[in-house]
Design a protein that fits this description.
Rossmann fold, alpha/beta
């Protein structure tokens, strides 16, 4: 069992090494930071969605932005569309699970906002529907997926493709990218005195 644990850690580390050496991924992360900073700086907000572990990432990143990341500063408007059980079950019941995020984007999104859409496969119907709804509202779209990309590329203004095929490794790369994005948003909007 010890060997399996070590192998899993090494596999995760190898994914992060590939991420660090992936110029397109680095550019996507930097672009997503720029997009979010511009939107938040002009008074817009971030909406975030995903399923399963990606839902947890959406909630985690929204929490880092609304509360704080490295240091105290004003809260930032970031809403995880994965958290309200009454909304999720109501939309799921009335419109179908495919619409659980799109309906919230239609209700809460505005032109100039940014949707962070997470799908390790790039094929989650409810995430794709949310991206289409965001485009219809005049929102910017930032996607987080695996190396294949699925159906997300044409729906995303910026797309981070984690350099992995397995869901756990993709999610681990997304989590590192999410922390970088939250840290950079905080640093750029609320720089600390040296």
């Amino acid at each position: 069992m010890t060997a399996e644990i070590r192998d899993a850690i090494l596999d995760s580390a190898a994914t992060l090494q590939r991420l660090a050496g992936d110029a397109a991924a680095i550019a996507a992360i930097a672009g997503i930071v720029d997009l979010a900073v511009a939107a938040l700086g002009r008074g817009n907000k971030l909406l975030l969605c995903g399923n399963g572990g990606s839902a947890a990432d959406a909630q985690h990143w929204a929490g880092e932005l609304v509360s704080r990341f490295h240091y105290d500063r004003p809260g930032l408007p970031a809403i995880a569309l994965t958290t309200d059980s009454s909304i999720l079950t109501g939309i799921g019941n009335d419109y179908g699970y495919e619409r659980v995020f799109a309906r919230q984007v239609e209700a809460l999104g505005a032109a100039g906002d940014v949707l962070f859409a997470l799908s390790t496969s790039g094929r989650s119907p409810n995430v794709l529907a949310a991206l289409r709804a965001a485009k219809a509202k005049g929102m910017a779209t930032a996607g987080f997926t695996g190396q294949g990309g699925g159906e997300m590329p044409p729906l995303c203004d910026l797309l981070l493709r984690a350099p992995a095929e397995s869901t756990p490794r993709i999610q681990e790369a997304h989590e590192v990218a999410g922390h970088i994005i939250c840290a950079e948003i905080e640093r750029r909007l609320f720089p600390r005195a040296p």
